[in-house]
Amino acid sequence: SLDPLVGYHAIELLQRFMVKHLTDLLTTPTPPGAVAVQPRSYEDAVLVKMKKKFPLIVFSCVKLASKLSLHAHIIDNNTAVHFLNSVGHRVSKQTLLDLELMILKGLDFRLNTPNPLTYVEILLEVLGKTINTSKVPVERLYDLCHHVLQFVCLQKTAIYDTLLKTTIQQGSPSREQREKFVTVTEDCMLLGVGVIAVAAFILRVKNWEKVVGELSHITGISTKSISDFAHVTLMHLMRSSFPLT
C-alpha cells in the first residue's frame, strides 16, 4: 500500500510540473515556416496529446516521490512496468526513465516541495505539547485529520473558490483577485491549521476556540483566517454528506 506521505508528495510534484509544462507548451512560439493554426485548436491539440500521457506522468510522480521517502518502498522499474501493463498501458522501462527525466527537468530538479500532511503532523505534535491533552484528544485528532485532509485535497477547487468569495465578500471574483489568491491556495501552513480545526470541531472538542487560538499562536495565522477556512470546509463536508435535492 502507498504511504500517505508519498501520495501527498506526488500530488505536489504533479501540480508543480503540470503548471510549468503546460505553460511552456502553450507559450512556445510557432516554429518558422510552420502552418499557422488557430489558438484554440492549438490548445486543444496540446491538451489531447497531454491527456494520453497524463496517466504515465501521474505514475512517474508517484515513483519519484517513493524514492524520496525514507519509510516507503521504492517503486522500481520492473514493478512499474508490470503494474502499468496490467492496467492497459504498454510502456517500456526507457519510456518511464525518459518521463522521470522530463519531470525532473521541468521541476529544475527541486523535489523538496512542501507536503500538507507533514505540516499537519508537525502541528499536531506541537499542539500536543502546548495544550491540555486530557481536554483535546490529539491522538484521535491525528486519525481524523487524515480523512479531512483527503477530503480537502479532493474538493480543493470548490473549497478555495468559496473561501475566496468569503474573503472578498463578492460572488464573482475578478481575474486579478484570483491571481492574488493563488498564494493562499499554496499555503500548506493555512491548510494544516484549517484541517486540524475542522477535525477538532467534528470531534466536538469543548474548547474549540482555545484550539484555534493555540494554532494561531503557533503559526501566526489569525484566528479569523483559521475559522473561515474551517467554516468553509465544514460547509462543503455537510453538502457532500447531505446533498441538496
Automatic annotation (TrEMBL):
Task: List the coiled-coil residues.
Answer: none
The protein's matches in InterPro entries, at most eight in alphabetical order, are given as: Cyclin-like_sf
What GO biological process, any one, is recorded here? reciprocal meiotic recombination
In terms of superkingdom, the source organism counts as: Eukaryota
- SUPFAM superfamilies hit by this protein: Cyclin-like
Q: Where are the transmembrane segments?
A: none
Q: Name one GO cellular component term.
A: site of double-strand break
Its name, as the record gives it, is: Cyclin N-terminal domain containing 1
Organism source for this protein?
Echeneis naucrates
